């Protein structure tokens, strides 16, 4: 079997229209012979399926979001980070300067629906392929079904309740002007997506049979996505949210229920546990690795889980990702050094994200027992360094994941092929604002997670989209809401902390969070740190309905326009805008205008 390549849209023999004029029900070409030709032989049919796969976004390239590439604004558009460059769409997200006519708003809607339509066409026609074995027809159809369900879910994360197009999505003769469909309720969308995933799972392989099949949808990934769908359905944004009580279709159907249903948390917990029971540890397990001395290394484990392709924790990754696009943003400017260590450093971590990491004793910095020191300097050896260096006390004695995630002023760069490089981010330093011109960190910190230890220009690596740690945290969160006090809640949070090298809750010096609310806070804090810069935080603050606090108001950073010591003073780099309407993107105005049954999201 040939490896399925995530193809560009142009590689498909049957190229669907890229025009935005027809909205989310773009038509296949009127020439039916072209459709027949496409499904006449295995080669062209597999290219068509590759085209369906190509809708999976390349989230390593978030400087270039929207339009036909489906890339999101999730990292720089969350409270984790800020992009240096004004052209990146995250600036519009953070300033609240977008609406139903903004290009990136319509881009996701159009492209995911194009993928949904393509998946339906493939499922409806693959049986015609004469030289494709029946077993592969069944498998490929299941892959397309799972992809279609995934694309619906990813639309739901962005827009809330969507239009379930049904058979009209695969009818090549349907006229867009004749199709007038209302939005399904969010609960109906959840039922449809989970049932489609269940149907696909019956015919999907458990896992990739060999390396040539990496990147294909398998039963494990479909099952994991199902657990995510149910977690979103149980979350405050979609479960008993009265803010959307007036958002109704013309027939009076409420699109988001304002009645809280505790059983949704139980369904989410059960789905995550079903995944764990079936696949752990036989197929997946938390990634753990020893250092050169043979001792377990939390730092290397939490760093390399993102770097070692298809390691035992990775449930799914996007193959052929534009990994060097992200690496360029993570490698500091490093003026005067070799090209292999010179990037832009243009993706800056916020002070809020820096402060979210625990201290070495596993406590939050606002805990009086954390040992956190806000000012002054000390000699401290980072886990990636070969000696102690003079370090600002805020950055000393933090947990291992801090050193995986953050490049700070005075830290040693990972690539030493051309000698030792110390990153300096104050104004006139080697990676400072004045030195870099258009390429510098807007916060004084640079995101480090997911950067290779050698030449940043080295590509060919996958982008991790989902790993086991997230399933563990999904399970703990849902179970804490469904059955507070269940021993598994603490167990799975502590599995994450143990791998990260921080004390477990309930150990000698760290008590178990007392009560459901305290455990909820602990789980959210753990999730924020463990999944930092992995495109979770943007959606987490929204589904929890806390983004009006976390993503709104003044955002702090180091004083990048100053040299030492003023550089260490915190300043406001941006006043972000987030209000209730921003929890969901608006439905693209062109589609609301075309489909008279399509109701706009509240506030837009």
TrEMBL record:
<protein>
    <submittedName>
        <fullName>RagB/SusD family nutrient uptake outer membrane protein</fullName>
    </submittedName>
</protein>
<keyword id="KW-0472">Membrane</keyword>
<dbReference type="InterPro" id="IPR033985">
    <property type="entry name" value="SusD-like_N"/>
</dbReference>
<dbReference type="InterPro" id="IPR012944">
    <property type="entry name" value="SusD_RagB_dom"/>
</dbReference>
<keyword id="KW-0998">Cell outer membrane</keyword>
<feature type="domain" description="RagB/SusD">
    <location>
        <begin position="324"/>
        <end position="604"/>
    </location>
</feature>
<dbReference type="InterPro" id="IPR011990">
    <property type="entry name" value="TPR-like_helical_dom_sf"/>
</dbReference>
<feature type="domain" description="SusD-like N-terminal">
    <location>
        <begin position="24"/>
        <end position="231"/>
    </location>
</feature>
<dbReference type="Pfam" id="PF07980">
    <property type="entry name" value="SusD_RagB"/>
</dbReference>
<keyword id="KW-0732">Signal</keyword>
<dbReference type="Pfam" id="PF14322">
    <property type="entry name" value="SusD-like_3"/>
</dbReference>
<comment type="similarity">
    <text>Belongs to the SusD family.</text>
</comment>
